[in-house]
Each structure stands twice: as structure tokens, then as C-alpha cells.
Amino acid sequence: MSQDTAQLSCQELVELVTYYFEGALPPGEHARFEAHVERCRGCGVYLEQMRTTIRLLGHLPVDELPAGAELELLEAFRGWRSC
Questions:
Q1: What is the 3-state secondary structure (H, E, C) of 12-45?
Q2: Using CB atoms within 10 A of its CB, is residue 20 exposed (0-12), middle (13-18) or buried (19+)?
Q3: At what angle do helices 27-39 and 41-57 cross, to 10 degrees?
Q4: Arithmetic mean of pLDDT, 10-26
């Protein structure tokens, strides 16, 4: 099975979500991404959560973040990836 027709795993989708939102996925990857979301309810929910987060917080200026918030978020994401 070629890379273009292979199904995307949930982990791969999570790793590609930023590129998806930026419109930076090649056409084949984009199609695989959307096909996965159509068949995987959990990833569909995750994608909607990310859209909501971007919509609500995407405009928050960096200087409005509380001191240490960036470090706390980075540490939380590091811990999440290791699960």
C-alpha cells in the first residue's frame, strides 16, 4: 500500500493538525487526513476542539498571558506526548 492510500493513524493525525489548519498539507496527505476524520469519531471531536481553541484563543496577545503560562503549557504538552 502506498503512502498516499495508507490510512492515517490517530497519532499521525494529531501530529499533522497544525499543518492541516495552516493549509500546508500536500493534497494526498490532506485527503488522508479528512478521510480519517470522517471515519474516526474521536479525531473528529479532537479537530473540533482544536478549532474552538483557535477561535477562542487565537487572538490572545502574548503579553496578556500570565507569567509562566507558556512554560506550564509546554510542560503539559511534553507530558501528553509521552503518554
A1: HHHHHHHHHHHCCCCHHHHHHHHHHHHHCHHHHH
A2: middle
A3: 110
A4: 93
